């Protein structure tokens, strides 16, 4: 009798072990696996961490008032002159310090805009894709209308007429248009999920629509959300940099990658003073490429996760 019980216990343990072995790995594990498989993604991730340490960590030791303070006597020092590793600008401000603060500001704006657009776009896309029908048609027509508006010209006009314009204002102006692309992106995934068996089973069991959307459907598109967040950050950093370069982004008193790259407007600076604009240009290029490589790895992880499910 004891032997039979022991045999039954062993079989049960083997069955449990087999079931655990057949369970698909978590989304986080799949993402880590795909990043480690790609040398370019690993290098890109390390570079992103170093840039964050340089901009956010370095800014902790800086006084913004002192960094932006003018000192004409120190104007246009070149590479490494007078203790300035990356030289100084026309106001005698240290380019290295401006690069730290400018990079931090541009990245923070990119993250802030992404946070707003992802939340709004996710909710709109979730409602539109889940309900479909007339609700989907009305929401999509609104999205179409916002998308056909000329984004940059409208932002430029608003920056000139809004009083007390600052970084917070810029974040909301960019987010005012950015949510539409995100909403369309999530709607397409929700449309493919709403008729799945698990959704129909939840409806049959009496779950409310809100419970199904946020408790059942949303966890199944988590990998898509992560991918979109990563890639959208790079795009929003680029938008902020473009506006600041044109003079309609952050105020001139606030350092930004765009304001530093703006020194390239002067042909003299392009040829004779490359330290004014080149470091910011390289930093922006490296950030964009690194995020793109990591985003590709996450996209592969999302595809692999869907196949394994």
Written overview of the protein:
It is a single chain. The chain is mainly α and 309 residues long. It has one domain: MetI-like fold, CATH 1.10.3720. Helix content is 75%, strand content 0%. It contains 14 helices and no strands. It has helices spanning 2-22, 27-37, 39-59, 64-67, 95-131, 133-148, 151-161, 167-193, 197-204, 209-217, 222-246, 257-261, 267-272, 278-308. Helix 5 packs antiparallel against helix 6 and helix 5 packs parallel to helix 8 (167-193). The two termini are 41 Å apart. The model is unreliable at 17-24 (pLDDT under 50). This is Oligopeptide ABC superfamily ATP binding cassette transporter, permease protein. InterPro entries: BP-dependent_transpt_permease (IPR050366), MetI-like (IPR000515), MetI-like_sf (IPR035906).
Question: Which features does this protein show?
Answer:
transmembrane, elongated, cell membrane, single chain, 14 helices, MetI-like_sf, mainly alpha, MetI-like fold, Oligopeptide ABC superfamily ATP binding cassette transporter, permease protein
Secondary structure elements and their pairing?
Layout: H1 2-22, H2 27-37, H3 39-59, H4 64-67, H5 95-131, H6 133-148, H7 151-161, H8 167-193, H9 197-204, H10 209-217, H11 222-246, H12 257-261, H13 267-272, H14 278-308
Helix pairs in contact: 2-14, 3-5, 3-14, 5-6, 5-8, 5-11, 6-8, 7-8, 8-11, 9-10, 11-14
